[in-house]
Amino acid sequence: MATLRKRGRRWHVQVRRKGRASVTRSFHSKSEALLWAREQEFEADKGQPQVHKTLRGMTVADIVSRYRDKVVPGKRGADRETLTLNAFLRHPLARVALSDVTASMVSAYCAARLRSVKPGTLNRELDILRHAFTVARRSWDVPLATNAFVDVTRPKNGAPRERRLLGDERGRLQAACAQCRNPYIWYLVELAVETAMRRGELLNARWTDVSVETRTIRIPVTKNGYARTIPLSGTAVLLLRDLRGLRSPSERLLPITENTAKMAWKRVVKRAGLVDLRFHDLRHEAISSFNLCLRAARAVAAG
């Protein structure tokens, strides 16, 4: 189908065909625009049956499964993305033929998902699925005319969390950690509050990244992909010195797996009787404390 519009002194024409990327061009005269449009439609119609046959023989799951197996293993969040894609593959939308999938179907999927997950979670899922279809179009020569996961309207993310440790919650958290049979859980939580490092960063940190002399720790791989060096507080330095006494043959500061840390955190929070506290909230707690100390220092310096 050709769409013709006049913009100023030029004629703008767009030709669209299902299973084929749209093409556009501008002309000085309407006759030239119409002639070009008919030529494009003719060329599109010649290849249309084969394109439609290809898309009809593939499903959304074919793209998602290939992306999970070929692309995701090379990504930092491979385990999490694999779980997300495996869950999606169990949804009826995954069994829809590529020739039939539409943005309205994706919208219906989103509406159903929002009944069980938050907007931020859904948007992260859409980011993964959108990239899977982009890779299929650009790198795998799948003749998709559009990316249905791009065309869908995304929900707005909710307000950012502002959970802080209030009253005696810090003490209750420390007491609960002290009861853990695994001594590294205590240090994991305390270092999170003292350094504002993410759980994954702490679990991947190595002794070679620590400099007690300069009171810094280098994080070679961060969430945004860039390395950074952060200063260590006096308490953090003491924690690391104590931790060195527990040092195992591992090169890592905390020789525990991510799953062990997650399960231990759930037990600690339950034991401490803390409501709606996530490990990532400790990062917010640390940053808020840093900001308070910084403002106090500036106030003192200002006299």
Topology:
Layout lengths: L1 E6 L2 E8 L2 E8 L2 H27 L3 H11 L7 H12 L13 H11 L5 H21 L8 H4 L17 H10 L5 H12 L3 H6 L5 E2 L4 E4 L8 E4 L2 H12 L12 H15 L8 H22 L1
Antiparallel strand pairs: 1-2, 2-3, 4-5, 5-6
Helix pairs in contact: 2-3, 2-5, 7-11, 8-10, 8-12
Secondary-structure-derived class: mainly alpha
- What is the spatial order of strands in the main beta sheet? 1-2-3
> Radius of gyration over alpha carbons?
27 Å
CATH architecture of the largest domain: Orthogonal Bundle
Biggest sheet overview: 3 strands, antiparallel
Output the CATH class name of the largest domain: Mainly Alpha
Mean pLDDT score: 84
User: Can you tell me the residue ranges where pLDDT is under 50 for at least 5 consecutive residues?
Assistant: none
Principal-axes geometry comes out as: elongated
The proportion of residues in beta strands is 5-15%
Number of helices: 12
The separation of the N and C termini measures: 73 Å
Give an overview in words:
The chain is mainly alpha-helical and 303 residues long. It folds into three domains: 2-56, no CATH class; 60-151, DNA polymerase, domain 1, CATH 1.10.150; 169-302, Intergrase catalytic core (hpI Integrase, Chain A), CATH 1.10.443. The protein has helices spanning 30-56, 60-70, 78-89, 103-113, 119-139, 148-151, 169-178, 184-195, 199-204, 234-245, 258-272, 281-302, and strands spanning 2-7, 10-17, 20-27, 210-211, 216-219, 228-231. The strands form two sheets. A three-stranded antiparallel β-sheet has the order 1-2-3, covered by helices on one side. It is elongated, with a radius of gyration of 27 Å. The relative contact order is 0.08. The mean pLDDT is 84.
